[in-house]
Amino acid sequence: MKCVLHCIFFLLLWITPNTRVCASHQGIPLSVVKLWASAFGGEIKSIAAKYSGSQLLQKKYKEFEQSVRVEEIDGIKLVKKLAGKMEQMFHKKAEAIKRLVEAAEEAHLNHEEDPELQYEYFNAVLINEMDEEGRSLELGGEFILQPNEHFNNLSVNLSLSVVQVPTNMYNKDSAIVNGVYWSEALNKVFVDNFKRDPSLIWQYFGSAKGFFRQYPGIKWTPDEHGVLEFDCRNRKWYIQAATSPKDVVILVDVSGSMKGLRLTIARQTVSSILDTLGDDDFFNIIAYNEELHYVEPCLNGTLVQADVTNKDHFRDRLDKLFAKGIGMLDMALTEAFELLSNFNETGRGSVCSQAIMLVTDGAVETYDAVFAQYNWPDRKVRVFPYLIGRESAFADNLKWMACANKGYFTQISTLADVQENVMEYLHVLSRPKVIDREHDMVWTEAYVDNTLEDAQGPVLMTTVAMPVFSTKNETRNKGILLGVVGTDVPVSEILKAIPKYKLGIHGYAFAITNNGYILTHPDLQPLYEEGKKRRKSSYSSVDLSEVEWEDKEDELRNAMVNRQTGSFSMKVKKTVDKGKRVLVLHNDYYYTDIKGTPFSLGVALSRGHGKYFFRGNLSVEEGLHDLEHPDVLLANEWTYCNTEEHPEHIFLSQIDAIKLYFNGEPHLKCDKDLIQEVLFDAVVTAPLEAYWTSLALNKSENSDKGVEVAYLGTRTGLSRINLFVMPDQLTNQDFLTGEDKEVVFSADHFPLWYKRAAEQVPGTFIYSLPFNTGSENKSVVLASSSIHLLDERESPIAAEKTEKKGYGIPFHPKAVGIQMKLEFFQRKFWTASRQCAALDGKCSISCDNDEISCYLIDNNGFIIVAEDLSLTGVFFGEAEGAVMSKLVSMGSFKRVNLYDYQAICRVYAQTSDTAHTLLHPYFALFAAVRWLLTEFVIFLVEFNLYSWWHSDLTIKAQRGGKTMLVPCDKEYPAFVSERTIKETVGNIDCESCVKSFVIQQIPSSNLFMVVIDNTCDCSDFGPVTMDPIEIMY
Questions:
Q1: Element (H or E) spanning 518, and its range?
Q2: Which of 185, 310, 431, 873 has its C-alpha lying 20 to 30 A from 813's C-alpha?
Q3: In terms of one coarse class, where is the protein primarily found (predicted)?
Q4: pLDDT digits (tens, 9 = 90+) for 743-788
């Protein structure tokens, strides 16, 4: 009891000082802050409206109201129409492939194999290479290469193809030379295909012998060791075209006789087998000696999809295998057969094509009893033994197994033999297709082509491929695969079939494969920035559920994988501005399959203005006249007219193509609806040119050159731009240069400022400071406002923007806006904050006083104006953690949790030293505590304690270790202001005082003025950050 009284006494002593401070606290007068906010808001809106011409534009659209028809978009009808257009586009690629198959099979049929054939061909590595005496190398010679814009200015030869031969193969091997000779017939078809369809890029033939013929011809460069690792037979397009989907169980002998080099070769053999498996295949790996050891114990008794993540995981587990004991192959075979049978009954996997890969150094018997029980007489499971090592004592038993079970025997003596010998099983699995003449066309998932790298980094592709068979009578029944032909289709070409204007400001289209992997989606992030743009290891197997993560039940994904047609709705959180801001939308999804491909197409339309589009009715002559104004630009990546179908149209601009279309050009296909709308926008926005010109000529209106640029964009991708200063006087030179695709019209999204303006209350402006724009006098504040066609309709038809402190040179046809200097914007704020209503002119408070701090923040909590210039663009919670925490708890700001399932984490590679420390009991206990308190971490993040939690206590384990980047999942916060709360007065109980603050919304904007009492120190609260944390499963 005595102890309790002591505790109460000390508690009263602790509370009493706080009570005295609170009673004497004067507070910050709300009326003064409201006066400042009103004065600043009125002036800055006046400037933004004046220089943007928003009122003039609103008036012009009002005049044309009667000639405009607003239509609601039928989502199902739209997605079916888009799928039809894509089907036509894919069909053209497929026809090109069929012509190559026919030419290849005919050329081989007419060719007689000649073991002594000598033939000089253009080797992709040796062309244009000279020896020490200046003579062309054998299989080289002069090969004319010229830069070509269609191939991203790579130097190519449009008349000839080149041949690449893997480094581990002999260039003049008889089989290679004969194959190269008869496949020369493909050159004519390559050239003809390109003439028929100028949008084609790489066309090629991958031979079963290993060589690769590519058109157009291009020079290949080996690595610094003179090695080219490329083998076309290892590529997914080759494997998918050559074989059917399959279920595979790999048995690895880890008995004592497999020690040393044999086990190393066995690991490499299994890894190479994994390379030949694709996303349509399922597999598992079982190691055996006197017991069975599933390489991944958690996946005991099942098969898993052979995607990149699973294959990499199993490769890592292979390193943990070690050899000991006696090999009980009968037990392993029994397990493999039962596993395949049970998996087959589930209806998953390939259902029909199954195989057992046996990696061993021998078999003491044939185990015919096992095969008789499980595989005979139907022999549905093929057996492929790989004999490891030079000894052949048990080779006969393994050969018998292969022959008795429709498989193939291979002996692998060295590591150099692995790749070539593993490939042999593909020929066997392809025989049924060859014999049945099944020219199945396959399409791959999206992958990165580094050869066509552009300004945005490597290009995403999909490949269409088809097998080539021998049609000679003497080989027809043997089922000989000659190779695979293919052509690449850039994902950007798929996007051209999508009319972005019909999808709306936030709408988008996306496509997935039959496995649920993304082919194209605006949220797909295949690259990461680490000095230069590089592809992520798992970029090609990003599932739809990882980007549309709000769909917890996978309803959308499953319906699309099952190739259904239908619709689905859900609320979504879409991040913008490099993931720092979030828009909460309600999306309606519509989906259907794309016939003739394994792909399904989806369209997302945001409710409200995203479900409508307008049709204006104006004369063509009037529209063309205004479209040709010098300040007019059209979205660079949008297709108003298809200028790629015919060579004579390739170099036409979209405006020139539109003019040619109306002049009656019969071979030019254009989007009539889009052209009609863009002509309407050209006419309605034309008066802005004269308006902006008059402002620019009146020097007194902008004497301090605070406003630098005005620009405008419409839903049809039309842009107008005007400079109020000379180009070399622009504060920032990077805006609208295409460096940041988020701020320009692109194939799959509207500019960032347009998106944000569309969600702002009509008649108001949204202001923001672009991230990563540099230091003082090198930044801009953007002020955007949406223009509504009809006052009662929620359909922003155009949006224009004022920018204070800048973006760069607006020369490139990519975006629209207005720009002001940040210094100009800040000066207006500080001037307004010095006003007061006192009759004697003596203000009770001022932002100049040391007792208070004044901030201007936006609706996502980012600082635009602060006394400390280094805080410009910083999240408010990092500067004033206590106040931000209070604003969140009071409901003025809402914390929104977001997820990134395509993240990259930097981890420390373990060393011998770090392994020892991690085994210490202290660290084991700490790991257990972390697991128990996972949910508590989320709370800690708000106060930036996670860095202490994660780093400080584990720094001993990390010290001295090398770092590496690995795929991971992350959770991170974003903050959004509550629109209904215009002003708030708050007090924060700190350790020995009470800190007061006032937050007041700036009228007609997304900005807030925050005034904080500096006399109370609340630093113990710590900052509130937006740092992501890794999700630990």
A1: strand 518-520
A2: 873
A3: membrane
A4: 788 888 888 888 888 888 878 899 988 775 444 445 788 888 888 7
